[in-house]
Amino acid sequence: MEVKIQLQEKDIPRQWYNLAPDLPSPLLPPLGPDGKPIGPEMLAPVFPMNLIEQEVSPKKWIDIPEEILDILYRWRPAPLKRAIHLEKHLNTPARIYYKDESYSPPGSHKPNTAVPQAWYNKQFGMKRLTTETGAGQWGSALAFACSLLGLECKVFMVRISFDQKPFRKIMMQVWGANCVASPSNETNAGRKVLAEMPNTPGSLGIAISEAIEAAVTDPSGKTRYSLGSVLNHVLLHQTIIGLEAKKQLKLAGEKKVDTVIGCAGGGSNFAGLAFPFVADKINGAKIKIIPVEPTACPTMTRAPFVYDFGDTACTTPLLAMYSLGHAFIPPPIHAGGLRYHGMAPLVCQAIVEGLLEPKAYHQNKCYEAALTWARTEGPICAPETSHAIAAVIDEAVKAKEEGKEKAILFNYSGHGLMDLSGYDAYLAGKLTDYELPDEDLKKFTAPLQNLPKAEMKKSGKW
Ligand SMILES: Cc1ncc(COP(=O)(O)O)c(C=O)c1O
């Protein structure tokens, strides 16, 4: 039996898949400050027009430029692997497959969109990109992409991760980027938060505000902002993962997949793997599709479906999504990449439709799963990825209890070799689990009642 199912470079997908036109009920449009749907031109100070076109594209398939593929070949097609040692350990009849996205130079799925974003910005004449980063995976991926394409890169890194993960900052510097802790003194948004909360651990919402401000205030007009998750074009670029996986499962002799799992922070690695399978589900396939989040930041499992801002300073358009509120400051759990207050609108609309079954896990259970993984399969996973593994183990155990042979596929979104402080805390018994209190949920979501209402539209088929 093959444990690594490889595709050749000539078999790499040559188009990205856009779920938006296939959704049975359409996405609600982003709204401007006046509560009216925004036009593409309103995004122009922030993103280059070629990426805005992808963001709003009604096309189901979008060609991947050859120059982008030439860069992706450095690590793609990524292998599909079978976790036979974990299967044996769990004594499960399930066959567990995973896409190994830890193969990329920065160590996660993030360069799948960092490279196209840097490439399209360069085509549009931009010289510099700004961004936020949570765990540091996205910042290092954009630093890597900018370095290959000769662009400058400025990263605002959430304070708690900046302190927990100094090596990520060094990686960004090796690739020539400039990385500062957020909130910083470099922007109005950062200075305002620091004045109110000098000891804040920071949040992705704050770092996004800073990065957008740094882009739109550049007097040269040659700077744009780049986002590592949430938006439609980011999810689009990640679908290369699921499209490769489909070809590889076929090579492995699988006729169908029963369960698809990914961790979800802003939704990009989950969507990248899952959306091509969501398309199958829309067309009648029976697949259980599970995005997994932390109990401490329960966006999909407990937050209301609302219109909310993507950042703390309320500079982004309003997006229709499940949201804990743009002012939400998540507790400093170790999966820094899963601490965003919102979730990708495309993922949210698929949840509203009933196409996905989100789950939330406590961090101790996730680290327990990560250790089981490391001690059976070998690799040390990113803390974010451990959430997917915890759900995979639960599904594989369920398959054993039901005596069912299931094919389970998940996204191994990144390695954890720069995230060892979380493992250290877990091994020392110092990690605490945290369930967001109802009062906090109410406190952070109450102000959203003053924003336009997001209607939950669904076809009722799932
Ligand atoms: C390894 C890894 N997995 C998952 C995520 C979550 O992001 P997303 O939901 O956009 O995939 C991150 C974010 O930083 C990450 O670094």
Detailed description of the structure:
Helices cover 39% and strands 15% of the residues. It contains 18 helices and 15 strands. It has 462 residues and is an alpha/beta fold. Helix 4 crosses helix 10 (232-238). It has a domain at 4-9 and 62-107 and 232-450: Rossmann fold (3-Layer(aba) Sandwich), CATH 3.40.50. It has helices at 49-55, 66-72, 84-90, 111-123, 137-149, 159-164, 166-174, 188-196, 204-216, 232-238, 240-251, 268-282, 299-302, 345-353, 363-376, 383-402, 420-427, 438-445; strands spanning 4-5, 15-17, 61-63, 80-82, 95-100, 128-133, 152-158, 178-182, 223-225, 259-263, 288-294, 305-309, 318-322, 359-361, 407-412. The strands form 4 sheets. A 7-stranded mixed sheet has the order 1-4-5-15-10-11-14, with helices on both faces. The longest helix has 20 residues, at 383-402. Pyridoxal-5'-phosphate binds next to helix 5, helix 12 and helix 16.
How would you sum up this structure in a few lines?
The chain is α/β, with parallel strands linked by helices and 462 residues long. Helices cover 39% and strands 15% of the residues. It has a seven-stranded mixed sheet, sandwiched between helices. Strands 8-7-6-9 form a four-stranded parallel sheet, sandwiched between helices. A two-stranded antiparallel sheet has the order 2-3.
